[in-house]
Amino acid sequence: MAQIEEKQSNDGGKVRAKKASTKVDMTPLADLGFLLITFFMFTTTFSKPNVMGLNMPPKNIEKNKPPEVKNENTLTLILGKDDKVYWHQLDKTLLTLDKISETNYSREGLREIIKTAKSNAPDKELFTIIIKPTDDATYENVVNTLDEMEITESTKYGIVDIPTWELDLYEQKSGTSSSNP
């Protein structure tokens, strides 16, 4: 705040020159500082959030007639513990414990299985991969599987819950017991 200077009285009648104050009033500088801060806050470009795109199927799909998918055109991947992937191409009626195969995420593992199943599919346009993560699988396992979908150019795939009958076969094959009901 500004200081009030008092006039000093001289008894001798001489008028002396008034001495200037050596103190600087900082009030206008504080206002200027806040104005500058406000100006730079409004003119600064803030970082934009990174968003991952999500591709959705087209809306004009016929709801009355779903496409018929044969077992030869599907590959079921069960993501298990210890970076293991169990796979088969059978339905519930034909699937047994000895018909579930096991692989890993190496280049010769999952990638070659996907390529082989895709090349052996009768209708390559309808080839679909069904990904079923268990409670034993990690987030990294799911990401690695999705990376393999991109590498092998597999465009039709889905992540679904594993049914109890298939979970029982997985537990028998892997020697684990899951906490699913």
Automatic annotation (TrEMBL):
Tagged with keyword Protein transport: yes
Family: Belongs to the ExbD/TolR family.
The organism's place on the tree of life at top rank: Bacteria
Keywords: Cell membrane, Membrane, Protein transport, Transmembrane, Transmembrane helix, Transport
Chain residue ranges for the region called Disordered: 1-20
Annotated InterPro entries: ExbD
Subcellular location(s) of the protein: Cell membrane
Organism: Moheibacter sediminis
Membrane-protein topology: Single-pass membrane protein; Single-pass type II membrane protein
GO molecular function: transmembrane transporter activity
Segments traversing the membrane: 29-46
Cytoplasm recorded as keyword: no
GO CC list: plasma membrane
Single biological process term from Gene Ontology: protein transport
Protein name as it appears in the record: Biopolymer transport protein ExbD
